[in-house]
Amino acid sequence: MDVAWFVVLSAFIFCIGAAGVMSRRSPLVVLLCLELMLNAGTLALIAFARMHGTGDGQIFALIVMVVAACEVVVGLGLIVSVYRRRLPIDVDKLSELRG
Amino acid sequence: MSATTYAWLVLAFPLAGTLVIALGWRVLFGRLAGWLGSFAILLSFAAGVGALLELLALPEEERSLTASAFDYASTAGLDADLGILVDPLSVFMVLVVSGVSFLIHLYSVAYIASDGGYARFFSYLNFFVFSMLLLVLAGNFVLLIVGWAFVGAASYLLISFWYRRMTATAAGIKAFVINVVGDVGLVLATFLLFQATGALDYAGVFTGAEEAFAENDGTLVAACLLLLVGAFAKSAQIPLHTWLPDAMEGPTPVSALIHAATMVTAGVYLIARTHPLFELAPAAADVAAIIGTLTLVMAATIALVVTDLKRVIAYSTMSQIGYMVLGVSVFAYGAGLFHLMTHAFFKALLFMGAGSVIGAMGGEQSLDRMGGFRKAMPFTFATFTLGALALAGAPLLSGFFSKDEILAFTIDRGGGYVILGVVGYVAALITAFYAFRMVFRVFFGKAAPEAAELARGGIHHADPQNPATGEVEDSDVGFPGPEHHVAERSAPMAAAMAPLALLSVVAGLVAIPGVTDTLEHFLEPTFADSRFIDVHPSESAEYIGLAVGGAIGLLGIAIAYVLYMRRPGVTLALRDRLRPVHSFLARKWYFDELLDALFVRPAAGFGRFGRTVVESALVQGLLVGGASGAVRAGTSFARTIQSGYLRAYALLLFVGVSGLALYFLIASA
Question: CATH no. for residue A49?
């Protein structure tokens, strides 16, 4: 199979993720969309690794998955603590840090 | 012990008293601080007597001893040490200062007893005496300046003693500022003299000046005039006199000690001490004589109309110091210093009497409210009247001999000096009149309610309030105490007033023309180099002077008697008839307003200019505000990006990364 299909699919998933991050207001969905973007990147890495026939890209993909797991832990933890403090679950309302 | 050892002891006791009282105020219960302070000054006086005896044991030409504790600075061309000079003049001043100070300390032991700041008062008072003794014992100009400034600081502390009274702190600041003007004059004079002579000790400066300057040399006259600025600021002579009446805000013993008997005579001492310079620069001496005469007549006229008892005595002090300045400026040193001594006795006595009366009035100082205290306060009446008689120059009392000796010397100089002498006699008439204006208004006439209460055995108690503004005060520390004391019921006060009354009567006996010249003879070694040492008015001239002076004094008393006793009410009619004159005098010849317009307002205006233009506009607006404004303006775009919206950041990130990717794509193509 041509590597172009994988790259195109990866680009689609990345764009869906990016659009979700920029348009959704629920932090949970933003987090899911971030995962989508990371997975799009992982997909592209695997595809290129297969094209080149080396293991470098696969190792990189594993590292990305570890990072994604960490990020989910931190992100979900933040969301839970926001929920516990009865703050609005809405990224637009959590905007105290403006300059 | 040698005379200089005694002189060091003279300085050591008040300094030790200051430190012990200042550091031990917590454990000094009751009146212990007062007794301790008095004892320190008594020891100092005893040491002064010791120095006197040692000095008298020496042959006359050797009666000038110096001693040095250590060197301040000793480099090429500059030699300043912490040195003292013991000669007849300094020993004379030490005895007058410490003697009168001891009696005033004794008086204060009772007078200030109910004040919250009892120990603080005596600590300040001891410090003042130490400073004053340092001033008169200093052997060079450097130490003189140190003592000079210390005395000014002590005066400030004591005028502002009731530090929660606005008027008192303002008066203290005024006195200090004017005294600093004098300090600057003294320092500049020292610079000029050091530049010309290369010496700082008295003997070196005097011999150097004789070599360096011709008579009336411009630099020397300038130096002498600067010395006079210092002398006039301390001695309250025109135009630096306005602080002295305001200084009456301080406690009465302070007025007696500093602003009558000791500190204000420092200027007279300075002129006498630097007499070789003034004899080389007679022009400066003439300026001093003229200003002294102006002051003595101006202050006497103001004393005619002032109604605050203490201020009458304050103006009288200015006037009497004018006589002393006139005396030493016409080179009649013996006469000027003789008057300094007698004045210290009778003026301290008058202040003590006034303090006793004010105590009976519950703090009230206005002559208008007083009257009829003669029966209720026989002791105060007797001593106050003796003091007033001495001040008026009534025959055979101390002021009679001392004042007339000055005037006889002045007239003997001939020429224009005769005018000064005649003005002095006219002022003597006014002096006798206002002295007995006080006596008649306080002790005679209709009895004030306070006098009646005192006669019944009580004492008037008023809610403590500021006599100047009427603001009510609590009697905690920083304000006068709630109790007041009168000499009739406080043994220490009476014990202090009795010797002074005696001295006011008999002190004149040390210099009766043609009979005794004890004082002048004693002071002779100091003034041996004077060209005027052998110039004396003839005995007949002195006797004529005495007769005229005595007659004038009695005439003044008689006029006061007629106006206040025989025809009370005439003075009120006179006041209404001469309303412009009265208001001119009551406003103190508008000197306060003049100095205000000349110096205070321009300085305040300059300060306002600095605050509004320099500080607000230039510093705050342009320098500080300009820098922060530039940063603020430059960062306004960056601040709007920081919207706080997570999704906006994500968009920015996305656009940025996309833009970069696009750039590299195009660039690589």
Answer: 1.10.287.3510
Tell me which residue range forms the domain holding A49.
3-84
Percent of chain B residues past pLDDT 70, beyond the cut: 96
Last residue of a domain, one of B564, B586, B608: B586
Q: pLDDT tens digits for chain A (99 residues)?
A: 788 999 999 999 999 999 999 888 888 999 999 999 999 999 999 999 989 888 888 999 999 999 999 999 999 998 899 889 888 888 888 877 776
Residue B614 domain-assigned? no
Most B CBs within 10 A among A7, A22, A32, hence the mutation to make, goes to A22
Minimum CA–CA partner of A15 in chain B = B654
Chain A interface, best mutation among B639, B642, B646, by max A CB count within 10 A = B646
Q: Which residues of A touch B654 (CB under 8 A)?
A: 18, 21-22
Distance of residue A73 Cα from the nearest chain B Cα, in angstroms? 19
* Cα distance between the two ends of chain A: 50
Residue A95 located in a structural domain: no
- What stretch of H or E contains B616? none
With an 8 Å Cβ cutoff, the interface of chain B facing chain A consists of 638-647, 650-651, 654
* Closest Cα in chain A, distance from residue B662 (Å): 15
User: CA B346 to CA B313: how far, in whole Å?
Assistant: 11
Q: Print the domain residue range for B496.
A: 3-586
**Which tens digits make up the pLDDT trace of B236-276?**
888 888 888 888 888 888 888 888 778 888 989 999 998 88
Give the C-alpha separation, B503 to B497, whole Å. 10
Written as six digits, the tokens of B163 are: 């530090």
Let me know if residue B301 belongs to a domain: yes
CB atoms within 10 A of CB B279: 18
Domain count for chain B, please give it. Answer: 2
Could you tell me if B40 and B181 lie in one domain?
Answer: yes
Instruction: Give the residue on A whose Cα is nearest the Cα of B641.
Output: A99
**Are B654 and A30 in contact (CB < 8 Å)?**
no
B487, B405: one domain: yes
Q: How many domains is chain A partitioned into structurally?
A: 1
Least confident residue range of B132-146, B333-347, B454-468: B454-468
Note whether B648 and A30 are within 8 A (CB): no
Taking CB atoms and an 8 Å limit, are B647 and A92 in contact across chains? yes
Beta carbons of B175 and B161 less than 8 angstroms apart: no
